[in-house]
UniProtKB/TrEMBL annotation:
Database matches in Gene3D superfamilies: 3.40.50.2300
A cellular-component GO term for this protein: cell envelope
Protein name per its UniProtKB record: ABC-type sugar transport system, periplasmic component
UniProt key word Transcription: no
One function term, GO molecular function aspect: carbohydrate binding
Main subcellular localisation: other
SUPFAM superfamilies on file: Periplasmic binding protein-like I
Lineage: Bacteria, Pseudomonadati, Pseudomonadota, Alphaproteobacteria, Hyphomicrobiales
Length: 316
């Protein structure tokens, strides 16, 4: 009896020691992303948490930790605290802002951490081992090409920008390069900070200032919602098109339903964070290393293919 108890205790001790060793040997992937301050970032949080849940359940040798931050300063503190408290094998980061996060991320890399950057790049791209983003120039270009075709190459436009970032600059460049040399004229272009309420107010200003507008481009779907509400309240009938970008489910549903003012959309899926997390994990679990840049295409979402892009359970 004593022998059996001793053996059982020894076996339990061995299991505890083994479990402790396995916990110590786990590969840790830290995921640092902005808090859900608008629709697209809400989608990022949703997909990051989904990836963490899936990986933590399926891969006992990997632990994914997701941290959200409401500002650049908070994000710096979050990744510094994580790095100081435990060994991080990989960091997947969607920087709140490029400049403020570059040096802190570089310091973490110098500890031997693999760095994956998503969407908003750092000012020093040599820090990253992997970069995953959408094609922002294509978002602008493909939207412009559709407008050119639909308006017969002529028309007066107003444009709403997001925030002063490389992403916004690229979207505007793609759009402006595509309409160059056509009869499409931009009457006004101002920032609405990817915010529906700001876009609503800016569109009201546009409507008051310009008696005739053929089309509107809000380069993000949160802003497009504000634009559409302003147009609806105005009762104006001259506006033929109001287009956005990013693939928000509410806008994709309009495309599915054959909405005449918003008949197409361009994707910029927040699920790219999930792709980045899985690709990062491949670098840690003995699979072939994944390095370099991955750029997602931005094909037009039309009524013919919109159901492929419609995810009603997503927050975005």
């Amino acid at each position: 009896m004593f022998c059996k108890k001793w053996m059982a205790a020894a076996a339990l001790g061995t299991l505890l020691l083994t479990g402790h060793a396995m916990a110590e040997d786990k590969k840790v992937i830290a995921v640092s992303i902005p808090a859900a301050d608008h629709g697209w970032t809400a989608g990022v949080v949703y997909h990051a948490q989904t990836a963490a849940k899936e990986i933590n359940a399926a891969f006992p040798g990997v632990e994914v930790i997701v941290k959200t931050s409401p500002s650049a300063a908070d994000q710096v503190s979050a990744i510094e605290d994580l790095s100081a408290s435990r060994k991080i094998d990989a960091l997947v980061i969607l920087p709140y802002s490029s400049e403020e996060l570059t040096e802190p991320v570089k310091a973490i890399k110098e500890k031997g951490t693999f760095i994956t950057v998503v969407d908003r790049g750092l000012t020093d791209p040599t820090i990253q081992g992997l970069y995953v983003a959408g094609d922002n120039i294509a978002v602008g270009r493909n939207t412009a090409k559709y407008m050119i075709d639909k308006l017969g190459g002529r028309g007066d436009l107003v444009v709403l920008r997001g925030i002063p970032t490389v992403i916004d600059d690229e979207r505007i460049k793609g759009f402006q390069d595509a309409i160059a040399g056509t009869g499409l004229k931009v009457l006004d272009i101002q920032y609405a900070h990817w915010n529906s309420d700001e876009a609503f107010k800016l569109m009201q200003d546009y409507l008051a200032k310009y008696p005739h507008i053929d089309a509107v481009w809000a380069n993000d779907d949160d802003m497009l919602l504000g634009v559409l509400e302003a147009v609806k309240q105005s009762g104006r009938t001259d506006i033929k098109l109001a287009l956005g970008g990013n693939g928000m489910k509410d806008i994709v549903k309009k495309v599915i339903d054959g909405d005449t003012m918003t008949p197409v959309e361009t994707p910029y899926p927040p699920s790219m964070i999930k792709t980045a997390i899985y690709m990062t994990m491949a670098n840690l679990v003995g699979q072939a290393p994944v390095r370099g840049a991955v750029k997602l295409d931005a094909p037009l979402i039309t009524k013919d293919n919109a159901k492929e892009y419609f995810f009603p359970d997503s927050p975005f």
